[in-house]
Amino acid sequence: MRTPRKSGNSSLRFELEEFHRNISDDVLVADLVRVSGELGKAALTFRDYNAAGKFSSSTIATRFGSWLAALERAGLEKTINRNISNDDLFRNIVELWTKLGKQPKFRDLTPEHSKYSAATYANKFGGWRNALREFVLWSREANVSNDASHGLDPPTRTTPRNPSWRLRAQVLMRDGATCRLCGANPQSGAKLHVDHIKPWSGGGETTLDNLRILCEICNIGKGDFVTW
Question: Does the reported pTM lie above 0.85?
Answer without folding.
Answer: no
